[in-house]
Amino acid sequence: MKVAPQSLPKASISAGTPRPAAGAVVQAGPPGPVAGGGMGALPARPVSTRILIREQAEKDRVARDSTAPRAQVYGPQEALPATPLRAIDSGRSPVQQSALQAEIAKAKCFEAGASLSVLDHPGKMGRVFDQYAVKLDTMLNALFAPGSEIGRLPVQFQGRERTLAEVFTQTLLMPLSPKSDQIGRCTDPALRDALQTGSLSEAQFMQGQGLQWLHAKLRTASVEGADHKKAEGHSFENLLTKIRTTSAFGTTVWQLMSTPELRAANADALAALLTPANQALAPKPSKLDPEGRPVGPEARPGDELNKRFSEFQARTRNATFDDPIARARRERVPLVGGQPLQDWQYESAAKYGLGFGQVIQPAGVSDAGQRAALEAELRAHGGVNGVPRQGQPILDGHRPTTLSEAELVALPEPFRQAELPELLQSHRLQHGTGVNRWEPYGSFAEGSAGMGFPSAGAQSGGTCDILLALHCMSAEPLYGRQKEVLAATVGIAAFMNFGAYHTFAETLPIGQAVASNQKAYVPNIGPRQENLYSDFSDMVRRHVGDDAHRAVQRFKQAYDAASNLAPVRQPEVAADLYLTQAQYDHFAARGELR
Fold this sequence. Notes:
Elements: E1 51-52, H1 53-65, E2 87-88, H2 94-120, H3 123-144, E3 154-157, E4 160-163, H4 164-173, H5 189-197, H6 202-219, E5 223-224, E6 229-230, H7 236-257, H8 260-274, E7 287-288, E8 294-295, H9 303-315, E9 329-331, E10 335-336, E11 339-340, E12 347-348, E13 358-359, H10 368-380, H11 405-409, H12 413-417, H13 420-426, H14 434-437, E14 438-440, H15 443-450, H16 461-473, H17 482-498, H18 504-515, H19 527-530, H20 532-543, H21 546-563, H22 581-589
Antiparallel strand pairs: 1-2, 3-4, 5-6, 7-8, 9-14, 10-11, 12-13
Helix pairs in contact: 2-17, 2-21, 3-6, 3-7, 3-17, 4-7, 7-8, 7-16, 8-9, 16-17, 17-18, 17-20, 20-21
């Protein structure tokens, strides 16, 4: 039985009082208590009898176009109908719907506690990222060294020729600036203040102090000794930096290699960059006949890298992965001066090198004033994840993980006893929240919700990017190497959940497919997800360590205990489980938000 994705449609689909649009300010009277503990502590969302999404969305379009026309433009890689041909199956009663919402909230609680626990106790997962961080550091030294020949190698990137150094400055170094919205960025107070006051320019940061900061972080061990105990210099922020840098490297490799034309133009240069850290990618000598003469075509430096990439593209980030119906997602409307942007259009993220989904970019805003205002908002908030958006579920940009304020207020008692609020408080970090950016409405997110699992941005392309980076930096291909891959997957899932970029259902199965040497990863729902949290706990036990496993088990026990609490229907206080600003202020003043 399916439930309606939160993003479709925006007009009311309820059988009585019209449901507010996502992000609308709800006049709910004086803020009333949402908390009550237990599964039923979240507000019910009434649903009607069976309504076709296409029929309802047409009504929405007419109403919307009569006030503020907004063109829906879909790129060539995403031949999406504006209204997917699926129906809302509304056979659930309000109480059943409330229980499902509470099940999803409970799942978010477990994922939050488990993610922060493994970041604090990295164990063998930390050793994996320590080792690859050293390889990254070796490549960065070769890339950015004064007079570097590798750094000057030309590549085709985003439609024009650039040098490797220019590309990685844009894709890897800039997101680590203190001005960025990314987790893992530089948070050094002195460097941040120097950038804010102008005594240090962005260029100086990238070429000097910022690069030195990154070298130091990549070389700082997370664990030490044969027992993988936490090293003295470990912090969760430092581990986030290592994983973020790995992700940026993998993303860039994908952007430089994703088509046959790009591979022909760029593989040799990328292989030259990778070889200092991975001699397995060095060009193989041509075969020789008995008299020492070359036989067949001469080997090129990028031949082995091409093999690695082609294998990954066929087995992991394949065409099925980005199925437009399964992975459908779109950005929430940006707020400009506290008000929703007007006169915008959706465009394919691929057009701007922003991955997958429907995005709203300044170039698609026809009004010059609105376009300039959106550009200013993006700069002020450090990027697309940090800019405030209409209907965003998380108002506190310092709190990690996917929990909204409404869900935090309604926290089941077992998670309070497990000290989840205190753990969230100890990991506060200003960042752009991924779940605030995306509205996933594809069949994967819809099916996950029906099983009680949350979604933040559809199956994770970022997870693929990190695994691709490891696949390219590793002496041997990554497939089938269970210990290393599953340890890394735990860290990837924790990283993605920290920034509310992706949930466990969107990350873990990808790494599991690589670890088990599956011929091809096919995103699906069902048996693979039923044991998701037990699988995660077992992965931590076997491939991370005892300290992390004890911490994770505390939240697994809280999750199991919360499952035994009777659902209680609560009154609806805001659309889609969001709090209004007045409600947020009310609960924050009472100390119920951490």
